[in-house]
Amino acid sequence: MAKICIRNLTKTYSGGRVVALSDICLDIEPFESICILGPSGCGKTTLLRIVDCLIPRDGGEITFDGQAVYEPRPDIAVVFQHFGLFPWKRLDENIAYGLEIRGRPRQETAATVARYIELMGLKGFEKAYPHQLSGGMQQRAGLARALAINPALLLMDEPFGSLDAQTRELMQEELLRILTTEKKTMLFVTHSIDEAILLGDRIVVMSRRPGRIREIISVGVPRPRKIISVRAHPRYIELRARLWEMLKQEQDDRIPAETNA
Amino acid sequence: MSKKTLVRLASLAVVLILWEFYGRRVNPILFTYPTAVARAFFELAASGELASYMRESLMVLAYATVASIVAGVLFGVLMGRFATIEWATDMYVSALYSMPMVAVVPLIVLWFGFKVPAKVIIVFLFMVFPVLLNTFEGVKNVDRNLQEVARSFCSSERQLWRHLIIPSAVPFIVAGIRLAIGRGLVGMIIAEFYTSITGLGYMIVRYANAFETDKLFVPIVVVMILGIGLMWLAKWIEVRIAPWRRFDERE
Ligand SMILES: Nc1ncnc2c1ncn2[C@@H]1O[C@H](COP(=O)(O)OP(=O)(O)O)[C@@H](O)[C@H]1O
Ligand SMILES: [Mg+2]
């Protein structure tokens, strides 16, 4: 059975005038990694928010292990594009946040936090405030905070979108490494073709308004992956061209999109 | 000693010397000079007069500060948390905040007399609104992104206040308290002009009426130093309780 089933999901904003999502259906298998790829404004963030029930949906159903979902679940963790660290918490306190909210014992929390600080290469910065850290380190802390609660589902909203190219690649590589040791089901939003191919088992290509799924593509590159080996894989070249063509069409379709609605 | 301090000390010395020099040439009823003020200061300090006047002023200020922080923070939080309370009261709050509080001083005297309670009420009215409004702003202006983070981690209402709302409102509240201290000193002097037969404000009135200008300057200087000291104290407390705001402190 699929881990998460999304059925006929719709969402509009501004009293129905902006259709952000229409008729989204998607099944996510256990330990699968799905990348949502699409031009900006196509409803990727909206989809993620609805899966975590951070905003209400207009229609459709979401089930998690067969249970209907109506409010944020403690076993779903989100990594935000804006990092979402608390400026008044030190790095270790930020990573401990989710565990503290769940009322875990102090000792256990401290041990888990120490483990993720180690894993994320943040050792020595435990007592720093977010503003004293680089963007890459802040996002590592955001990722550590999400992983620390050992979530069954990881939702990531363009988490590396605001990082420079080099840091972004380092983070991608690190995420791949972590996913091999800590198996997770993941829904990863991106507008980068490379990132989608690198991280996804399947890629969901979304079309511009009204946010629909255009196509779902299996990546077919075996795991464990590394940036270099993925880029050298024959599927990479092929997929890249195909996805690029699709996104280009989406960009061009911008205006006629209203008519086929 | 840094160049900055050196320039400041030099500037201070020049001003004091010029004041001393020209101050001596003016009729002592109209003006005075630093050494005369210093002499008056030691005289008033030695006789215990200054201390006794100051004690009452400080007491009034302390009561009003505590009362305005407690009331301002409490009501600001309620206004920020419950929209009904906000809508029912925000017009009065902003009207009272915009109004020059001096205008109600005679009324307070009429209602509450000339003693300590009346003075505390006056100073309280001067101080409470900046605290209240800043607390309200702080509670209202919680970063929406962080609110979403808290929700996604399934934070309870109590945890929301502890981890998000209170820490993000604290700097606003402290800024409000700083504003309030400035206004509170004004309120204290005005209250003492109008009311009591003691306090630093009364001292000013008394020595002005007696044309003892050198003694008149003593409470003025004391209030000035008090203002500087309290501002500095508030700043110090702010840095202590909101250390994440020291954005320039990068190692
Ligand atoms: N709170 C909102 N109110 C009104 N419109 C919104 C709101 N949030 C998003 N939208 C609109 O919905 C569409 C999808 O937005 P979003 O999900 O953020 O897209 P993406 O993450 O793919 O860039 C956009 O056209 C956006 O302008
Ligand atoms: Mg987005």
Ligands and ions found: adenosine-5'-diphosphate, magnesium ion
* Total number of strands of chain A: 10
> How many whole angstroms does the radius of gyration of chain A measure?
19 Å
Residue share in helices of chain B?
over 70%
The N- to C-terminal Cα distance of chain A equals 33 Å
Major sheet size, sense and barrel closure of chain A: 6 strands, mixed
Terminus-to-terminus distance of chain B: 23 Å
**In terms of per-residue confidence, which ranges of chain B show pLDDT below 50 for 5 or more consecutive residues?**
none
Oligomer: heterodimer
**Element-level helix/strand string of chain B:** HHHHHHHHHH
Largest sheet of chain B: none
Helix content of chain A: 25-40%
Secondary structure category of chain B: mainly alpha
Shape of chain B: globular
| SS summary, helix count of chain B | 10
Can you give the mean pLDDT of chain A? 91
- Kindly report the greatest chain-chain contact and the residue count on each side: A-B, 26 and 21 residues
- Shape field of chain A: globular
> What is the topology, as strand order, of the major beta sheet of chain A?
6-7-8-3-9-10
Measured by DSSP, the beta-strand proportion of chain A falls in: 15-25%
Question: Overview of this structure, please?
Answer:
With 261 residues, chain A is an alpha/beta fold. Chain A is built from eight helices and ten strands. In chain A, the strands form two sheets. Chain A has a six-stranded mixed beta sheet with strand order 6-7-8-3-9-10, with helices on both faces. In chain A, strands 2-1-4-5 form a four-stranded antiparallel beta sheet, with helices on one face. Chain A is globular, with a radius of gyration of 19 Å. Chain B is built from ten helices and no strands. The model of chain B has no long low-confidence stretch (mean pLDDT 91). Classes of the chains: A alpha/beta (261), B mainly alpha (251). Chains A and B meet through β6 and α2 of A and α7 and α8 of B. The structure holds adenosine-5'-diphosphate (ADP) and magnesium ion (MG). Magnesium ion (MG) binds next to α1 of chain A.
